[in-house]
Design goal:
By secondary structure, the protein is of the alpha+beta class. Among the domains are: 302-370; 371-517, Heat Shock Protein 90 (2-Layer Sandwich), CATH 3.30.565. Helix content is 56%, strand content 17%. It contains 12 helices and 15 strands. It has a 5-stranded mixed beta sheet. Strands 2-1-4-3 form a 4-stranded antiparallel beta sheet, sandwiched between helices. The protein has a 4-stranded antiparallel beta sheet with strand order 6-5-8-7, with helices on both faces. Helix 1 runs antiparallel to helix 8.
């Protein structure tokens, strides 16, 4: 009992130490993963800050060409005023001085202007990128008049487009004759707009092409339009976009980014796939270590059981061998006593003890060399054990054997007698020499059962799993090998089961031995 208790204490202590080590490992691993996650979020924030600085350049460029457009508009207004001054009627006796207005008009080298009359026909143009000579390359076969007409049609189309972008100016040249001036942004403003849009396009492309970046999604906060992302296309579909945004919002707080015109854009981001995989790394390591320990335990347990089997077999053979010599000597002495004039009952009883010792020797011999199973009546085997015990236990113990018909089952009779005898003797000890021992044999479709019931002190629930362990005993002088040997004979040699069917303290216990049919 003390040996088994110490073994259990050591198991519990080692289990606590192992769980402590595993818990500490998981704690430190999760701490490292958490720190890496925080650093990854910091890098994402730094990346967003860098984008914000990049967008500052976009906004600066936007402000510059806005100012240039305003300057060009004022310049255009001044140019129109100069044109109005030139167009004013003057008295005949005065010679008008047009040098300053003409100077202002001639200074316009960048702003493209188209002049329309009352009927919206083309009256002239300034700073246009194409003319009839450039059109001639595409229309070689048409006449000069048709080419001029096509050029004017092109200017009229441009004029309509420009009027939607910039305000036009109408000037009364002569009474009843009005001229409309339509202008567009200068080449410098167009170049600045192109540079700004290139920066935005490069930012979007950077989002898409940078595979090493954490998963990001940049959308317009108002229209929910996707501006840029490196996520898979199916997650950006109209049906999945809302779910994707919700998923990313649950992971991290979005970062607000302003592009231009005061529009707010939200940058959603998630942890990188590597970080997500790393979160499961401690558990994978724990599983691998546990699997390795389990395999190691199974291997060493197999070797330990094999060694135990060798020890059991060796001990049994040696016991049978050691009993053989004194048995032979005792038989010779009994024969000598039979020739003497003594009470015949003495050698007869001695013969019974010799037969018992030979049976014990035979049991150990079978354990050491392997038990041969033969089909025979199990009731007869059990009956023989009970008949032997009736005259060797207290007469205050009532033995009842319930059986009806012969039960033929493959078993080794000497070993099965030993099993029933061991359990029955333990039952008598539990009853302290007073009570009832009930044995019954019955069958099921696949098993034959032997139930041994006593009216003893019972087995506490915390000991039910320990009673078959080697070294476990409730007796002060017990070795704890009886039930262990019982389990070995039933399980190893007969491929059966032995267990406590039910037990109640101060009421009794029922052991069941099950042998396969």
């Amino acid at each position: 009992m003390n040996l088994y208790s110490n073994k259990q204490k050591w198991k519990i202590a080692l289990m606590v130490i192992a769980l402590t080590m595993v818990g500490a490992s998981l704690f430190f691993s999760n701490s490292i993963v958490s720190k890496m996650g925080n650093r990854e979020q910091e890098r994402a924030q730094q990346w967003a800050d860098a984008i914000k600085k990049k967008l500052e350049l976009v906004r600066l460029t936007d402000r510059i060409f806005t100012q240039l457009r305003e300057n060009e508009q004022r310049e255009m207004e001044l140019w129109i005023d100069a044109t109005k001054e030139v167009s004013k009627a003057t008295p005949l006796d005065q010679v008008p001085d047009y040098s300053f207005p003409l100077k202002i008009i001639n200074q316009n080298k960048n702003i493209p202007v188209i002049l329309l009359d009352n009927d919206q026909n083309i009256s002239g143009s300034v700073n246009i990128d194409f003319d009839t000579s450039s059109l001639r390359k595409d229309f070689l076969e048409i006449s000069a008049d048709d080419l001029t007409k096509k050029f004017e049609d092109s200017l009229q189309i441009l004029a309509r487009i420009w009027q939607k972008r910039n305000p036009s100016f109408t000037v009364e040249v002569y009474e009843g004759l009005f001229m409309t001036y339509v202008y567009y942004d200068s080449k410098e403003i167009i170049r600045l707009e192109y540079e700004r849009d290139s920066l935005i396009r490069s930012f979007n492309q950077e989002l898409i092409d940078n595979e090493g970046l954490v998963p990001v999604l940049l959308i317009n906060d108002l229209t929910k339009e996707v501006i840029g992302s490196n996520l898979e296309k199916d997650k950006l579909d109209a049906g999945n976009l809302a779910a994707t945004i919700s998923e990313l919002r649950a992971q991290n707080k979005p970062i607000v980014i302003n592009f231009k015109n005061g529009q707010n854009n939200l940058l959603y981001f998630d942890d990188s796939p590597e970080l997500k995989q790393l979160q499961y790394f401690p558990y994978i390591i724990f599983f691998i270590i546990g699997l390795f320990i389990l395999i190691g335990y199974i291997i060493f347990s197999t070797f330990r059981k094999a060694e135990q089997n060798q020890v059991w077999a060796g001990m049994a053979k040696e016991t049978a061998h050691q009993l053989g010599t004194p048995l032979s000597s005792l038989m010779a002495w009994i024969q000598l006593l039979e020739t003497e004039k003594i009470d015949p009952m003495i050698p007869a009883e001695m013969h019974k003890d010799i037969d018992r010792l030979e049976k014990v020797s035979d049991r150990f011999s079978k354990i050491g060399s392997g038990a041969k199973l033969e089909e025979s009546d199990l009731n007869r085997t059990v009956q023989g054990v009970l008949d032997y015990l009736r005259f060797r236990i207290s007469n205050k113990v009532e033995i009842e054997f319930n059986t009806n018909v012969p039960v033929l089952v493959k078993h080794n009779a000497p070993l099965m007698e030993w099993v029933v005898e061991n359990i029955a003797k333990n039952a008598v000890d539990a009853m302290e020499g007073v009570g009832k021992l009930t044995v019954s044999v019955h069958t099921s479709p696949k098993w034959t059962h032997i139930d041994i019931t006593d009216t003893g002190k019972g087995i506490p629930p915390n000991q039910l799993k320990s009673i078959f362990q080697p070294g476990f005993s409730t007796k002060k002088r017990g070795w704890g090998l009886g039930l262990s040997l019982v389990k070995r004979i039933v399980k190893v040699y007969h491929k059966g089961k032995v267990f406590v069917l039910h037990s109640q303290v101060d009421v009794g216990t029922t052991f069941r031995i099950s042998i396969p049919l």
